[in-house]
Amino acid sequence: MNDADGASDTQGTQGTQGTQGVNDAKGTQGVIRLLLAEDQGMMRGALALLLGLEEDFEIVAQLGNGDEIVPRALETRPDVALLDIELPGRNGLDAAAALREALPECQVLILTTFGRPGYLRRAMEAGAAGFLVKDGPVEELAVAIRRVLAGERVIDPGLAAAALSAGPNPLTQRERDVLSAAVDGATVADIAAKVHLSPATVRNYLSSAIGKTQTRNRMEAVRAARQNGWL
Questions:
Q1: Fewer CB in a 10 Å sphere around the end CB: N or C, the chain?
Q2: What stretch or stretches form a coiled coil here (predicted)?
């Protein structure tokens, strides 16, 4: 796995420098305390079971709702938080930013099914130390956990390349807010009430978002933004 922005000085999960970082992390930290946030109970239980087999890991919290992440992290003081993106309540990306502010010594590793370039960029902006998709082997995840604790940034290499080629998110925060409010086919009036803007301003933001996503209407804009990980 390589660094997301091409600035990595490591060449892979098993590289010499990465291995040294892993050894340093284990030697200085002893048992690595993990918080796991995943909304699917079976997946959460399986991850906890498999990671718990590692002799230097301890699962200190298992959560299914994003609103619980920061309070439980402050209570349990994990070394690394493994966060899914699609969570009830606060999503994993927003929770990552809040967790980095509330408990900066805790490293955040995003673990998701949704390998989208926009999600990767947002995760890095939120201060995440790693971003992996769920289809990798658990042994690779275990090494990634030790590497982020050693101060490295660990990113799925294919996704890193896709993020660089995709470019930055073209949508402003307000455009994202308006599109997010339009997800369920809400009317302009409904969106305006939800985001506390006038209907005319909402129409302007929707028009701008439609143009930037090169789509024909707001629902196509929502789909395009989701597919790119911009929402």
A1: C
A2: none
Q: What is the spatial distance between Cα 92 and Cα 110, in angstroms, rounded to a whole number?
A: 8
Q: Are 129 and 105 in contact (CB under 8 A)?
A: no
Largest Cα span, the chain = 59
In order of 81, 117, 118, 131, 169, the CA distances from 166 in angstroms are 27, 7, 8, 17, 9
Give the H/E segment covering residue 132: strand 130-133
Burial class (CB in 10 A: 0-12, 13-18, 19+), 49: exposed
* CA–CA distance, 139 with 142 (Å, rounded to integer): 5
Measured CA to CA, the distance from residue 229 to residue 123 in angstroms comes to: 10
Q: Which strand (E) or helix (H) includes residue 55?
A: none
Answer whether 0.85 is exceeded by the pTM. Answer: no
pLDDT in tens, 173-227: 899 899 989 888 789 999 999 999 999 999 999 999 899 888 888 888 888 887 7
What are φ and ψ of residue 31, in 5° steps? -75, 130
